[in-house]
Amino acid sequence: SSFLFAAARGLPGFGHVDTAPMLVAIELLCCIEGPMWREIRGLGLAYSFGMYGDADEGLVYFSLARSSSLPRAFAQAAKLVQAYASGAEVVEAVALENAIASVVSAVVSREQTVSACGLQSLMSALRASGPGHNGRLVRSVQAVSPADVRRVLSAYLANVFDPSAANVAVTTNANKLEEVVSGFEEGGWRVERLESLDGAVK
What we know:
Layout: E1 2-9, H1 19-30, H2 35-41, E2 46-54, E3 59-67, H3 70-86, H4 93-108, H5 114-126, H6 133-142, H7 146-155, E4 166-171, H8 177-186, H9 197-200
Antiparallel strand pairs: 1-3, 1-4, 2-3
Helix pairs in contact: 1-4, 1-6, 1-7, 2-3, 3-7, 4-6
């Protein structure tokens, strides 16, 4: 099995106008039995995958775990994101509604108890997002359109698959090394081989 972790520039802060569209776009692509699930896990290319944004770091991430064909899985994910970003794949109304509902549920669940509300208030203060951040976020999420989804896919998430915009780290079995290296080099990536983790942190 092989593992991959990719990072590119994402949202610069929690109050950014694209926060809600980013959450919805990721949920739409990565939900159970959604587009990414069908193209990656459904085809047996990787056991699991993930995509998320971290506004604290200003980065967006993509990961693959326990992949039997890492270059192919990565290329398939890139192709899918580009298809939705360009409009070649249509953001269906039902899929968008389901993604919005899932994100709203996740945001609301942050404040289920008094202590949870207190924690959210503290986090809002630390992040300078102001009082009522989650309420504003829910309203923004409910207003996300297909055009918003395409915009954030093109502006942020597609960059994770761009050799000129992203950094990618891969761990793989020695038997898969040549396959992985050649696969990424064919995709335009400059590959640096490291024999151990010790070499990666020097």
